[in-house]
Amino acid sequence: MEVVLLERVEKLGQMGDVVKVKNGYARNYLLPQKKALRANKENLSIFEAQRAQLEADNLKRRAEAEKVGEKLDGQAVVLIRAASESQQLYGSVSTQDIAKAVTEAGFTVTRKQIELDKVLKTLGLHDIKVRLHPEVAVGVTVNIARSAEEAEIQARGESVEEAAEAALNERDEAVVNVFESTADVDVEELEQVAAGEEPKDDA
């Protein structure tokens, strides 16, 4: 089917382009979303008559999207999810989940504006694209972690496993230090102190 595009469509063309697409793609996506019209004589005449207004509206929407994009680009949002020891999520993160997190961060977006090239099923930092306008897309980092503490570790670029191991080593070292500091203490003196007595001086 031949259609005339009413806005830029990635990998297809710019506003006003007449392109040939699969019937299903036109019927299920381009036409219902008002991104295109069937390229017949009547519709082409309608488009040409409205072209100046469509282009003006498009420029206005693009300017607004660019303004929002300047603030949103590079932002990070945190999603807390349950996951296994192998960092696999019990389930996956959807475009709806990301849109909600971005909206809670102060930017109103819909799930249709979130572009995922793969399903998010693991912990870690994931770079995703938010399409604010057909001609404006920005990058956002989705930080998926089991807890707020893990999210902070990941945001610093550190490995959660290495941080956990370091914390264990630190705890073990503290235990050893406590043991070593008490190793030379006279047990009898400790018992006297515990009983509220003054330690006896053997000298």
From TrEMBL:
Gene Ontology CC terms: ribosome
Keyword tags: Coiled coil, Ribonucleoprotein, Ribosomal protein, RNA-binding, rRNA-binding
Pfam family membership, one: Ribosomal_L9_C
Coiled coil: 37-69
Stretches assigned to the Ribosomal protein L9 domain: 13-40
Similarity section: Belongs to the bacterial ribosomal protein bL9 family.
HAMAP family for this protein: Ribosomal_bL9 (MF_00503)
Function, in words: Binds to the 23S rRNA.
Name this protein carries in UniProt: Large ribosomal subunit protein bL9
Upper taxonomic lineage: Bacteria, Pseudomonadati, Pseudomonadota, Alphaproteobacteria, Sneathiellales
Gene: rplI
